[in-house]
Amino acid sequence: MPLSALQKSRYKYVPKLPPVLRGDLSKVVVQLGQPTESVANSDELKKLFPHTYGAPIAQVSSGKNKSFDKQLTLAVVLSGGQAPGGHNVIAGLYDGLKKGNKKSRLLGALGGPKGLIDGKFVEITDRMMDDYRNTGGFDMIGSGRDKIEKPEDLAKVVEVVQSQGINGVVVVGGDDSNTNAAVLAEHFQSLSLDVGVVGCPKTIDGDLKNDHIETSFGFDTACKTYSELIGNIGRDANSAKKYWHFIKLMGRSASHITLECALQTQPNVCLIGEEVAAKKMTLDQIVEQVAGTVAARAAKGNNFGIVLIPEGLIEFIPEVGTLISQLSDVLAHDHEGARDFEKQVLLEGQVAWLEKMLTAENTKVLKALPAEIQRQLFLDRDSHGNVQVSLIETEKLLVELVKRKLKSWSESGKYAGKFSALTHFFGYEGRCAFPSNFDADYCYSLGFNAFVLFNAGLTGYLSSVRNTHLSAEKWTCGGVPITMMMNIEQRHGKPKPVIKKALVELEGKPFKSFAASRDSWSVETAYLYPGAIQYYGPSEVCDAPTKTLQLEQK
Q1: Element (DSSP H or E) covering residue 424
Q2: For the whole prediction, is pTM greater than 0.70?
Q3: What's the sign of the alpha-carbon dihedral 75, 80, 86, 87?
Q4: Looking at domain 19-218+435-491, which CATH architecture does it have?
Q5: Per-residue confidence band for 2, with pLDDT thresholds at 50, 70 and 90
Q6: Catalytic residues
Q7: 219-431+508-553: which CATH topology?
Protein backbone atom coordinates (compact mmCIF):
# COMPACT_ATOMS: atom_id res chain seq x y z
CA MET A 1 0.00 0.00 0.00
CA PRO A 2 1.53 3.37 -1.01
CA LEU A 3 2.06 5.78 1.88
CA SER A 4 2.26 9.56 2.01
CA ALA A 5 5.31 11.18 3.56
CA LEU A 6 3.20 12.35 6.49
CA GLN A 7 1.82 8.84 7.05
CA LYS A 8 5.33 7.38 7.15
CA SER A 9 6.42 10.06 9.58
CA ARG A 10 3.40 9.61 11.87
CA TYR A 11 4.10 5.89 12.20
CA LYS A 12 7.30 6.86 14.00
CA TYR A 13 5.62 9.24 16.45
CA VAL A 14 5.83 7.99 20.05
CA PRO A 15 2.75 9.15 22.02
CA LYS A 16 3.33 10.72 25.41
CA LEU A 17 2.03 8.92 28.53
CA PRO A 18 1.22 10.19 32.03
CA PRO A 19 4.31 9.68 34.25
CA VAL A 20 2.67 6.96 36.36
CA LEU A 21 2.26 4.70 33.30
CA ARG A 22 5.76 5.04 31.88
CA GLY A 23 7.81 2.87 34.20
CA ASP A 24 7.81 -0.61 35.65
CA LEU A 25 4.27 -2.02 35.77
CA SER A 26 5.12 -3.89 38.97
CA LYS A 27 5.06 -0.47 40.60
CA VAL A 28 1.65 0.62 39.23
CA VAL A 29 -1.43 0.07 41.40
CA VAL A 30 -5.06 1.18 41.46
CA GLN A 31 -6.40 2.76 44.63
CA LEU A 32 -10.14 2.90 45.30
CA GLY A 33 -12.02 5.76 46.95
CA GLN A 34 -15.47 6.05 48.46
CA PRO A 35 -18.69 4.59 46.96
CA THR A 36 -20.36 6.81 44.35
CA GLU A 37 -23.90 7.85 43.46
CA SER A 38 -25.47 8.41 40.04
CA VAL A 39 -26.17 11.95 38.83
CA ALA A 40 -29.92 11.27 39.21
CA ASN A 41 -32.53 8.52 39.65
CA SER A 42 -30.36 6.60 42.12
CA ASP A 43 -33.15 4.31 43.40
CA GLU A 44 -34.10 3.15 39.89
CA LEU A 45 -30.49 2.65 38.85
CA LYS A 46 -29.66 0.63 41.97
CA LYS A 47 -32.39 -1.81 40.96
CA LEU A 48 -31.18 -1.99 37.36
CA PHE A 49 -27.48 -2.35 38.29
CA PRO A 50 -27.45 -4.15 41.67
CA HIS A 51 -23.97 -5.66 41.14
CA THR A 52 -22.12 -2.63 39.75
CA TYR A 53 -23.92 0.44 41.10
CA GLY A 54 -22.03 2.60 43.60
CA ALA A 55 -18.51 1.44 42.68
CA PRO A 56 -15.77 3.80 43.91
CA ILE A 57 -13.63 6.21 41.90
CA ALA A 58 -10.33 4.57 40.94
CA GLN A 59 -6.95 6.34 40.94
CA VAL A 60 -3.81 4.92 39.33
CA SER A 61 -0.73 5.56 41.45
CA SER A 62 2.64 4.12 42.46
CA GLY A 63 2.86 1.05 44.69
CA LYS A 64 3.64 -2.68 44.70
CA ASN A 65 1.71 -4.76 42.16
CA LYS A 66 2.33 -8.50 42.45
CA SER A 67 -0.12 -9.43 39.69
CA PHE A 68 1.04 -6.96 37.02
CA ASP A 69 2.14 -9.77 34.69
CA LYS A 70 -0.93 -12.01 34.69
CA GLN A 71 -1.81 -13.39 31.29
CA LEU A 72 -5.00 -11.86 29.83
CA THR A 73 -7.09 -12.08 26.70
CA LEU A 74 -8.94 -8.85 26.01
CA ALA A 75 -11.37 -7.91 23.23
CA VAL A 76 -11.70 -4.37 21.89
CA VAL A 77 -14.87 -3.05 20.24
CA LEU A 78 -15.16 0.19 18.26
CA SER A 79 -18.76 1.34 18.63
CA GLY A 80 -20.68 4.14 16.93
CA GLY A 81 -19.37 6.89 14.66
CA GLN A 82 -15.70 7.34 13.90
CA ALA A 83 -13.48 9.75 15.83
CA PRO A 84 -9.80 10.61 15.31
CA GLY A 85 -7.54 8.62 17.63
CA GLY A 86 -9.40 5.32 17.84
CA HIS A 87 -6.42 3.38 16.53
CA ASN A 88 -4.25 4.88 19.27
CA VAL A 89 -6.66 3.65 21.95
CA ILE A 90 -6.07 0.18 20.55
CA ALA A 91 -2.30 0.81 20.39
CA GLY A 92 -2.15 1.93 24.03
CA LEU A 93 -4.22 -1.07 25.12
CA TYR A 94 -2.07 -3.44 23.06
CA ASP A 95 1.25 -2.05 24.31
CA GLY A 96 0.12 -2.12 27.94
CA LEU A 97 -1.16 -5.67 27.59
CA LYS A 98 2.08 -6.90 25.99
CA LYS A 99 4.23 -5.00 28.46
CA GLY A 100 2.44 -6.82 31.27
CA ASN A 101 2.78 -10.25 29.67
CA LYS A 102 3.97 -11.00 26.13
CA LYS A 103 1.68 -14.04 26.01
CA SER A 104 -1.43 -11.87 26.55
CA ARG A 105 -3.72 -11.52 23.53
CA LEU A 106 -5.81 -8.68 22.11
CA LEU A 107 -8.76 -9.54 19.87
CA GLY A 108 -10.44 -6.95 17.68
CA ALA A 109 -14.20 -7.37 17.22
CA LEU A 110 -14.87 -6.96 13.50
CA GLY A 111 -17.57 -4.46 12.57
CA GLY A 112 -18.28 -3.20 16.07
CA PRO A 113 -20.58 -4.77 18.69
CA LYS A 114 -21.96 -7.16 16.06
CA GLY A 115 -18.52 -8.76 15.89
CA LEU A 116 -18.65 -9.44 19.63
CA ILE A 117 -22.15 -10.90 19.35
CA ASP A 118 -21.21 -13.18 16.45
CA GLY A 119 -17.72 -14.02 17.71
CA LYS A 120 -15.97 -12.53 14.69
CA PHE A 121 -12.49 -11.38 15.73
CA VAL A 122 -9.03 -10.79 14.41
CA GLU A 123 -6.07 -11.24 16.73
CA ILE A 124 -4.03 -8.05 16.72
CA THR A 125 -0.32 -8.61 16.13
CA ASP A 126 2.75 -6.36 16.20
CA ARG A 127 2.70 -6.07 12.40
CA MET A 128 -0.98 -5.24 12.25
CA MET A 129 -0.76 -2.70 15.08
CA ASP A 130 2.22 -0.93 13.55
CA ASP A 131 0.25 -0.37 10.32
CA TYR A 132 -2.30 1.79 12.18
CA ARG A 133 -0.44 3.76 14.86
CA ASN A 134 -1.24 7.49 14.95
CA THR A 135 -3.61 7.25 11.99
CA GLY A 136 -7.23 8.37 11.70
CA GLY A 137 -10.26 6.25 10.99
CA PHE A 138 -11.63 3.02 12.44
CA ASP A 139 -10.70 0.86 9.46
CA MET A 140 -8.37 -1.39 11.46
CA ILE A 141 -11.31 -3.48 12.71
CA GLY A 142 -14.36 -1.43 11.68
CA SER A 143 -17.18 -0.01 13.76
CA GLY A 144 -20.95 -0.42 14.04
CA ARG A 145 -24.03 0.88 15.82
CA ASP A 146 -25.50 -2.40 17.04
CA LYS A 147 -26.59 -2.59 20.67
CA ILE A 148 -25.93 -5.51 23.01
CA GLU A 149 -29.06 -5.32 25.14
CA LYS A 150 -31.54 -7.96 23.97
CA PRO A 151 -31.50 -11.15 26.10
CA GLU A 152 -30.59 -13.26 23.08
CA ASP A 153 -27.64 -10.97 22.20
CA LEU A 154 -26.38 -10.93 25.78
CA ALA A 155 -26.56 -14.73 25.82
CA LYS A 156 -24.51 -14.90 22.59
CA VAL A 157 -21.85 -12.60 24.02
CA VAL A 158 -21.58 -14.75 27.15
CA GLU A 159 -21.08 -17.80 24.96
CA VAL A 160 -18.45 -16.01 22.89
CA VAL A 161 -16.36 -14.69 25.81
CA GLN A 162 -16.40 -18.13 27.44
CA SER A 163 -15.44 -20.00 24.25
CA GLN A 164 -12.65 -17.51 23.46
CA GLY A 165 -11.36 -17.32 27.02
CA ILE A 166 -11.85 -13.54 27.06
CA ASN A 167 -11.07 -11.86 30.40
CA GLY A 168 -12.24 -8.36 29.48
CA VAL A 169 -13.99 -6.22 26.88
CA VAL A 170 -13.00 -2.66 26.00
CA VAL A 171 -15.86 -0.62 24.52
CA VAL A 172 -14.63 2.45 22.64
CA GLY A 173 -17.67 4.67 22.17
CA GLY A 174 -19.89 7.56 23.18
CA ASP A 175 -22.65 7.86 25.77
CA ASP A 176 -24.96 5.24 24.22
CA SER A 177 -22.13 2.79 23.61
CA ASN A 178 -20.79 3.12 27.14
CA THR A 179 -24.29 2.82 28.58
CA ASN A 180 -24.27 -0.49 26.71
CA ALA A 181 -20.91 -1.26 28.35
CA ALA A 182 -22.50 -0.76 31.76
CA VAL A 183 -25.33 -3.15 30.84
CA LEU A 184 -22.78 -5.74 29.70
CA ALA A 185 -20.70 -5.37 32.86
CA GLU A 186 -23.80 -5.80 35.02
CA HIS A 187 -24.87 -8.88 33.06
CA PHE A 188 -21.47 -10.57 33.46
CA GLN A 189 -21.51 -9.83 37.19
CA SER A 190 -25.05 -11.18 37.57
CA LEU A 191 -23.77 -14.50 36.18
CA SER A 192 -20.64 -14.40 38.40
CA LEU A 193 -18.46 -14.32 35.27
CA ASP A 194 -14.91 -13.07 35.84
CA VAL A 195 -15.05 -10.88 32.73
CA GLY A 196 -14.48 -7.14 33.06
CA VAL A 197 -15.83 -4.30 30.91
CA VAL A 198 -14.07 -0.94 30.58
CA GLY A 199 -15.08 1.92 28.29
CA CYS A 200 -13.12 4.72 26.61
CA PRO A 201 -14.87 8.10 26.06
CA LYS A 202 -15.21 8.75 22.32
CA THR A 203 -17.28 11.30 20.41
CA ILE A 204 -16.29 14.28 18.31
CA ASP A 205 -19.48 15.98 19.55
CA GLY A 206 -17.81 16.57 22.91
CA ASP A 207 -20.94 15.73 24.94
CA LEU A 208 -19.43 12.85 26.94
CA LYS A 209 -17.67 14.66 29.77
CA ASN A 210 -18.06 15.52 33.44
CA ASP A 211 -15.90 16.32 36.46
CA HIS A 212 -13.82 13.18 35.90
CA ILE A 213 -13.93 12.82 32.12
CA GLU A 214 -12.50 16.14 30.95
CA THR A 215 -13.02 15.60 27.24
CA SER A 216 -13.99 12.88 24.79
CA PHE A 217 -11.37 11.89 22.29
CA GLY A 218 -11.67 13.08 18.70
CA PHE A 219 -13.16 16.43 19.70
CA ASP A 220 -9.78 18.15 19.54
CA THR A 221 -8.89 16.92 16.04
CA ALA A 222 -12.36 17.39 14.57
CA CYS A 223 -12.66 20.98 15.83
CA LYS A 224 -9.19 21.86 14.56
CA THR A 225 -10.05 20.34 11.17
CA TYR A 226 -13.32 22.27 10.90
CA SER A 227 -11.71 25.46 12.18
CA GLU A 228 -9.04 25.26 9.49
CA LEU A 229 -11.80 25.07 6.86
CA ILE A 230 -13.77 27.92 8.45
CA GLY A 231 -10.61 30.00 8.59
CA ASN A 232 -9.96 29.30 4.90
CA ILE A 233 -13.50 30.39 4.07
CA GLY A 234 -13.09 33.49 6.24
CA ARG A 235 -9.97 34.45 4.32
CA ASP A 236 -11.79 33.90 1.04
CA ALA A 237 -14.84 35.87 2.19
CA ASN A 238 -12.65 38.77 3.25
CA SER A 239 -10.92 38.62 -0.14
CA ALA A 240 -13.96 38.39 -2.43
CA LYS A 241 -16.18 40.47 -0.10
CA LYS A 242 -19.41 39.28 -1.70
CA TYR A 243 -20.67 36.10 -0.01
CA TRP A 244 -22.28 35.16 3.26
CA HIS A 245 -21.24 31.63 4.23
CA PHE A 246 -23.72 29.62 6.33
CA ILE A 247 -21.78 26.71 7.82
CA LYS A 248 -23.49 23.83 9.65
CA LEU A 249 -21.29 21.79 11.99
CA MET A 250 -21.75 18.36 13.53
CA GLY A 251 -23.38 18.10 16.94
CA ARG A 252 -27.04 17.15 17.12
CA SER A 253 -27.54 16.99 20.87
CA ALA A 254 -25.02 19.63 21.96
CA SER A 255 -23.30 22.66 20.43
CA HIS A 256 -19.76 22.09 21.75
CA ILE A 257 -18.19 21.82 18.28
CA THR A 258 -19.84 25.03 17.08
CA LEU A 259 -18.76 26.91 20.20
CA GLU A 260 -15.16 25.67 19.97
CA CYS A 261 -14.94 26.56 16.29
CA ALA A 262 -16.29 30.03 17.07
CA LEU A 263 -13.59 30.51 19.72
CA GLN A 264 -10.96 29.45 17.19
CA THR A 265 -12.20 31.52 14.20
CA GLN A 266 -14.34 34.47 15.46
CA PRO A 267 -17.25 34.37 12.99
CA ASN A 268 -19.85 37.13 12.60
CA VAL A 269 -22.69 34.94 13.90
CA CYS A 270 -22.58 31.76 15.95
CA LEU A 271 -25.83 30.16 17.05
CA ILE A 272 -25.67 28.01 20.19
CA GLY A 273 -28.59 25.60 20.49
CA GLU A 274 -28.57 25.55 24.29
CA GLU A 275 -28.91 29.35 24.40
CA VAL A 276 -31.76 29.24 21.89
CA ALA A 277 -33.57 26.71 24.08
CA ALA A 278 -32.89 28.62 27.32
CA LYS A 279 -34.20 31.87 25.86
CA LYS A 280 -37.11 30.08 24.16
CA MET A 281 -36.20 31.83 20.92
CA THR A 282 -38.58 31.42 18.00
CA LEU A 283 -37.39 30.70 14.49
CA ASP A 284 -38.35 34.25 13.51
CA GLN A 285 -36.26 35.70 16.34
CA ILE A 286 -33.23 33.75 15.14
CA VAL A 287 -33.81 34.98 11.60
CA GLU A 288 -34.13 38.55 12.91
CA GLN A 289 -30.81 38.19 14.72
CA VAL A 290 -28.94 36.89 11.67
CA ALA A 291 -30.59 39.36 9.29
CA GLY A 292 -29.79 42.19 11.70
CA THR A 293 -26.10 41.32 11.56
CA VAL A 294 -26.23 41.14 7.76
CA ALA A 295 -27.84 44.59 7.65
CA ALA A 296 -25.39 46.10 10.16
CA ARG A 297 -22.41 44.89 8.17
CA ALA A 298 -23.99 46.05 4.89
CA ALA A 299 -24.33 49.53 6.36
CA LYS A 300 -20.53 49.55 6.71
CA GLY A 301 -20.08 48.29 3.15
CA ASN A 302 -19.41 44.68 4.15
CA ASN A 303 -21.78 42.43 2.21
CA PHE A 304 -20.09 39.25 3.39
CA GLY A 305 -19.78 37.20 6.54
CA ILE A 306 -19.76 33.84 8.29
CA VAL A 307 -22.58 32.16 10.24
CA LEU A 308 -21.91 29.00 12.28
CA ILE A 309 -24.86 26.68 12.95
CA PRO A 310 -24.95 23.52 15.11
CA GLU A 311 -26.40 20.47 13.41
CA GLY A 312 -29.17 20.11 16.00
CA LEU A 313 -30.20 23.78 16.10
CA ILE A 314 -33.66 23.20 14.70
CA GLU A 315 -34.52 20.79 17.53
CA PHE A 316 -33.44 23.37 20.14
CA ILE A 317 -35.98 25.90 18.81
CA PRO A 318 -38.96 25.23 21.12
CA GLU A 319 -41.70 25.67 18.51
CA VAL A 320 -39.91 23.52 15.92
CA GLY A 321 -38.81 20.96 18.50
CA THR A 322 -42.45 20.54 19.55
CA LEU A 323 -43.45 20.09 15.90
CA ILE A 324 -40.72 17.49 15.32
CA SER A 325 -41.75 15.61 18.47
CA GLN A 326 -45.37 15.37 17.34
CA LEU A 327 -44.34 14.48 13.79
CA SER A 328 -42.22 11.62 15.14
CA ASP A 329 -45.23 10.31 17.06
CA VAL A 330 -47.68 10.72 14.18
CA LEU A 331 -45.35 9.28 11.54
CA ALA A 332 -44.00 6.43 13.70
CA HIS A 333 -44.38 3.08 11.97
CA ASP A 334 -46.61 1.75 14.73
CA HIS A 335 -49.01 4.71 14.53
CA GLU A 336 -52.35 3.66 13.08
CA GLY A 337 -52.43 6.52 10.57
CA ALA A 338 -48.86 6.28 9.30
CA ARG A 339 -49.80 4.08 6.34
CA ASP A 340 -52.40 6.60 5.19
CA PHE A 341 -49.71 9.26 5.19
CA GLU A 342 -47.47 7.06 3.05
CA LYS A 343 -50.20 6.98 0.38
CA GLN A 344 -49.91 10.74 -0.11
CA VAL A 345 -47.65 11.27 -3.12
CA LEU A 346 -47.68 15.07 -3.37
CA LEU A 347 -46.36 17.46 -0.72
CA GLU A 348 -49.68 19.32 -0.67
CA GLY A 349 -51.51 16.11 0.17
CA GLN A 350 -49.07 15.27 2.95
CA VAL A 351 -49.48 18.70 4.56
CA ALA A 352 -53.27 18.49 4.24
CA TRP A 353 -53.29 15.05 5.88
CA LEU A 354 -51.07 16.28 8.74
CA GLU A 355 -53.35 19.25 9.40
CA LYS A 356 -55.89 16.74 10.72
CA MET A 357 -53.32 15.13 13.02
CA LEU A 358 -51.27 18.06 14.36
CA THR A 359 -52.18 20.76 16.83
CA ALA A 360 -53.11 24.14 15.38
CA GLU A 361 -49.83 25.66 16.58
CA ASN A 362 -47.70 22.87 15.08
CA THR A 363 -49.62 23.17 11.80
CA LYS A 364 -48.85 26.90 11.72
CA VAL A 365 -45.13 26.28 12.26
CA LEU A 366 -45.09 23.55 9.59
CA LYS A 367 -46.72 25.76 6.97
CA ALA A 368 -44.24 28.57 7.67
CA LEU A 369 -41.32 26.35 6.65
CA PRO A 370 -40.04 26.29 3.05
CA ALA A 371 -41.34 23.39 0.96
CA GLU A 372 -37.93 21.68 0.76
CA ILE A 373 -37.61 21.59 4.56
CA GLN A 374 -41.14 20.17 4.81
CA ARG A 375 -40.11 17.34 2.47
CA GLN A 376 -37.07 16.57 4.61
CA LEU A 377 -39.23 16.43 7.72
CA PHE A 378 -41.53 13.91 6.05
CA LEU A 379 -39.26 11.69 4.01
CA ASP A 380 -36.03 11.32 5.97
CA ARG A 381 -37.05 9.11 8.88
CA ASP A 382 -35.18 6.40 10.77
CA SER A 383 -36.19 2.76 11.19
CA HIS A 384 -38.64 3.72 13.96
CA GLY A 385 -40.30 6.42 11.87
CA ASN A 386 -38.67 9.27 13.79
CA VAL A 387 -37.63 12.46 12.00
CA GLN A 388 -33.87 12.44 11.35
CA VAL A 389 -32.95 15.95 12.41
CA SER A 390 -29.35 15.59 11.24
CA LEU A 391 -30.56 15.39 7.63
CA ILE A 392 -32.55 18.63 7.77
CA GLU A 393 -30.65 21.32 5.89
CA THR A 394 -30.92 23.98 8.59
CA GLU A 395 -28.30 26.11 6.90
CA LYS A 396 -30.43 26.33 3.73
CA LEU A 397 -33.54 27.00 5.80
CA LEU A 398 -31.88 29.99 7.47
CA VAL A 399 -30.57 31.34 4.16
CA GLU A 400 -34.07 31.24 2.67
CA LEU A 401 -35.72 32.88 5.69
CA VAL A 402 -33.01 35.55 6.04
CA LYS A 403 -33.41 36.32 2.34
CA ARG A 404 -37.16 36.80 2.85
CA LYS A 405 -36.57 39.02 5.87
CA LEU A 406 -34.03 41.20 4.06
CA LYS A 407 -36.37 41.54 1.08
CA SER A 408 -39.13 42.88 3.34
CA TRP A 409 -36.65 45.26 4.99
CA SER A 410 -35.42 46.39 1.58
CA GLU A 411 -38.99 47.20 0.49
CA SER A 412 -39.48 49.31 3.63
CA GLY A 413 -36.12 51.08 3.22
CA LYS A 414 -34.56 49.46 6.27
CA TYR A 415 -31.92 47.55 4.28
CA ALA A 416 -29.96 48.53 1.18
CA GLY A 417 -27.23 45.89 0.92
CA LYS A 418 -26.58 42.87 -1.27
CA PHE A 419 -27.11 39.36 0.05
CA SER A 420 -25.57 36.36 -1.70
CA ALA A 421 -25.23 33.21 0.38
CA LEU A 422 -23.39 29.89 0.11
CA THR A 423 -24.03 26.90 2.38
CA HIS A 424 -21.69 24.24 3.76
CA PHE A 425 -21.95 21.23 6.09
CA PHE A 426 -18.77 20.09 7.82
CA GLY A 427 -19.25 16.64 9.31
CA TYR A 428 -17.55 13.61 7.83
CA GLU A 429 -14.52 15.75 6.96
CA GLY A 430 -13.44 15.64 10.62
CA ARG A 431 -14.36 12.16 11.83
CA CYS A 432 -11.38 10.28 10.39
CA ALA A 433 -8.75 13.03 10.23
CA PHE A 434 -5.14 12.34 11.20
CA PRO A 435 -5.31 12.75 15.00
CA SER A 436 -3.66 15.83 16.44
CA ASN A 437 -0.78 15.29 18.85
CA PHE A 438 -3.23 15.89 21.69
CA ASP A 439 -5.61 13.15 20.51
CA ALA A 440 -2.74 10.79 19.63
CA ASP A 441 -1.36 11.17 23.17
CA TYR A 442 -4.73 11.23 24.94
CA CYS A 443 -6.06 8.16 23.14
CA TYR A 444 -2.89 6.16 23.69
CA SER A 445 -3.07 7.03 27.40
CA LEU A 446 -6.76 6.06 27.59
CA GLY A 447 -6.01 2.65 26.07
CA PHE A 448 -2.94 1.95 28.19
CA ASN A 449 -4.86 3.03 31.29
CA ALA A 450 -7.75 0.71 30.36
CA PHE A 451 -5.30 -2.22 30.54
CA VAL A 452 -4.23 -1.11 34.03
CA LEU A 453 -7.89 -1.07 35.15
CA PHE A 454 -8.39 -4.61 33.81
CA ASN A 455 -5.19 -5.75 35.50
CA ALA A 456 -6.64 -4.47 38.78
CA GLY A 457 -9.81 -6.53 38.22
CA LEU A 458 -12.19 -3.59 37.73
CA THR A 459 -15.39 -3.66 35.66
CA GLY A 460 -18.09 -1.17 34.71
CA TYR A 461 -15.60 1.71 34.50
CA LEU A 462 -14.70 4.41 32.01
CA SER A 463 -10.98 5.06 31.48
CA SER A 464 -10.12 8.56 32.72
CA VAL A 465 -7.08 10.76 32.04
CA ARG A 466 -7.06 14.15 33.77
CA ASN A 467 -5.20 17.49 33.87
CA THR A 468 -5.27 17.32 30.08
CA HIS A 469 -5.08 21.11 29.72
CA LEU A 470 -1.49 20.78 30.92
CA SER A 471 1.47 18.95 29.36
CA ALA A 472 1.40 15.14 29.47
CA GLU A 473 4.05 15.32 32.21
CA LYS A 474 1.27 16.42 34.56
CA TRP A 475 -1.50 14.07 33.41
CA THR A 476 -3.03 11.68 35.95
CA CYS A 477 -5.26 8.69 35.31
CA GLY A 478 -7.83 6.39 36.86
CA GLY A 479 -11.33 5.10 36.33
CA VAL A 480 -14.88 6.38 36.76
CA PRO A 481 -17.83 4.03 37.43
CA ILE A 482 -20.19 4.30 34.46
CA THR A 483 -23.27 4.14 36.71
CA MET A 484 -22.05 7.34 38.39
CA MET A 485 -22.70 9.23 35.12
CA MET A 486 -26.16 7.80 34.46
CA ASN A 487 -29.76 8.89 34.80
CA ILE A 488 -33.14 7.75 33.48
CA GLU A 489 -34.45 9.32 30.27
CA GLN A 490 -37.37 8.71 27.95
CA ARG A 491 -36.22 6.96 24.77
CA HIS A 492 -38.86 5.98 22.18
CA GLY A 493 -41.52 6.52 24.82
CA LYS A 494 -39.90 4.25 27.43
CA PRO A 495 -37.72 5.04 30.48
CA LYS A 496 -34.12 3.94 29.87
CA PRO A 497 -30.86 4.21 31.82
CA VAL A 498 -28.37 6.33 29.87
CA ILE A 499 -25.21 8.33 30.46
CA LYS A 500 -26.29 11.94 30.83
CA LYS A 501 -25.16 14.09 27.92
CA ALA A 502 -23.10 17.17 28.71
CA LEU A 503 -24.62 20.23 27.04
CA VAL A 504 -22.98 23.63 26.59
CA GLU A 505 -23.20 25.38 29.97
CA LEU A 506 -24.31 28.97 29.53
CA GLU A 507 -22.64 29.85 32.83
CA GLY A 508 -19.46 28.04 31.82
CA LYS A 509 -16.22 29.83 30.92
CA PRO A 510 -16.14 28.81 27.22
CA PHE A 511 -19.60 30.23 26.50
CA LYS A 512 -18.98 33.35 28.60
CA SER A 513 -15.73 33.99 26.76
CA PHE A 514 -17.57 33.72 23.45
CA ALA A 515 -20.50 35.87 24.63
CA ALA A 516 -18.16 38.63 25.78
CA SER A 517 -16.76 39.06 22.25
CA ARG A 518 -19.52 38.13 19.83
CA ASP A 519 -21.05 41.61 19.53
CA SER A 520 -17.78 43.05 18.25
CA TRP A 521 -17.22 40.04 15.95
CA SER A 522 -20.69 40.49 14.46
CA VAL A 523 -19.99 43.90 12.93
CA GLU A 524 -16.21 43.92 12.63
CA THR A 525 -14.26 41.52 10.44
CA ALA A 526 -12.18 39.84 13.12
CA TYR A 527 -11.63 36.40 11.61
CA LEU A 528 -8.83 34.18 12.90
CA TYR A 529 -7.11 31.75 10.55
CA PRO A 530 -6.00 28.68 12.56
CA GLY A 531 -4.39 26.92 9.61
CA ALA A 532 -3.74 23.20 9.32
CA ILE A 533 -3.08 20.94 12.31
CA GLN A 534 0.63 21.06 13.16
CA TYR A 535 2.44 17.85 14.16
CA TYR A 536 6.05 19.05 14.39
CA GLY A 537 7.38 22.19 15.99
CA PRO A 538 6.96 24.12 19.27
CA SER A 539 4.86 22.28 21.86
CA GLU A 540 2.63 25.35 22.40
CA VAL A 541 1.62 25.02 18.73
CA CYS A 542 1.59 21.25 18.22
CA ASP A 543 0.34 19.93 21.56
CA ALA A 544 -2.15 22.65 22.55
CA PRO A 545 -5.62 21.36 23.56
CA THR A 546 -8.88 23.00 22.54
CA LYS A 547 -9.79 26.44 23.83
CA THR A 548 -12.83 24.83 25.47
CA LEU A 549 -10.62 22.54 27.55
CA GLN A 550 -8.22 25.30 28.47
CA LEU A 551 -11.03 27.61 29.59
CA GLU A 552 -12.91 24.91 31.50
CA GLN A 553 -9.91 23.55 33.39
CA LYS A 554 -8.26 26.87 34.20
Answers
A1: strand 421-426
A2: yes
A3: positive
A4: 3-Layer(aba) Sandwich (3.40)
A5: confident
A6: 205
A7: Rossmann fold (3.40.50)
